Amino acid sequence: DAGITQSPRHKVTETGTPVTLRCHQTENHRYMYWYRQDPGHGLRLIHYSYGVKDTDKGEVSDGYSVSRSKTEDFLLTLESATSSQTSVYFCAISPPRDTTPYNEQFFGPGTRLTVL
Amino acid sequence: AQTVTQSQPEMSVQEAETVTLSCTYDTSESDYYLFWYKQPPSRQMILVIRQEAYKQQNATENRFSVNFQKAAKSFSLKISDSQLGDAAMYFCAYRSGSNAGNMLTFGGGTRLMVKP
Q: What are phi and psi of A67, to 5 degrees?
């Protein structure tokens, strides 16, 4: 199994508070991703990173920011949490194309976030 | 933008029988990759099978196989000899061959129930 951990695994917070989720990998993969999972929507991409300090927006990036200061860590921040951000958040990593043409993504265990 | 559709929100199968989960996608590209992920109650996303669009041969992984119909933009998953442990959410995902970030687009998922 790919070495991916997420912390915390569960969090309950109040509307308007800042929240940071952490993704940590031990695979030294270049690409990292943050998704959210909501019923009926599958997983939707929030932000992704293609290297240290290199990030870009995904499909549902409003209200979220990310940072990647080290290869192994990718942080997702909700600056001011809202109830619509209640969701399960997944981090994923992907090996570079020179190792596999499929660039399949491997996922962390997920973080359940509840915003009251 | 590409879209992925899983038209069956729920499916059920008798243990030891065969079941097919449907997935269609919309794209104008010729170079892409398709994936099926399994999400059991543990919430972990597990890669089940993958297919490259340029390969005509359908991918097979043990009891899991796909029926890839490129012209019809269809990518169905067949599970043979279903087992209780196959009960899970199944997600179909698409990755463009040209997108540098290797991002995945997911379908909404199909919940598979296995009856003993």
A: -150, 145
CATH classification for the domain delimited by A4-115, as one of 3.40.50.2000, 2.60.40.10, 3.40.50.1010, 3.40.50.300: 2.60.40.10
* Tens digit of each residue's pLDDT (9 = 90 or more) over B11-50: 999 999 999 999 999 999 888 999 999 999 999 999 999 9
For the stretch B73-101, pLDDT in tens is: 999 999 999 999 999 999 999 998 876 67
| Per-domain residue ranges of chain A | 4-115
Superfamily of domain B3-115: Immunoglobulins (2.60.40.10)
Q: What pLDDT does A74 receive?
A: 98
For an interface test with A, give the residue of B6, B38, B104 to mutate (most A CBs within 10 A): B104
| CB-CB under 8 Å, B33 with A103 | yes
* pLDDT value at residue A97: 67
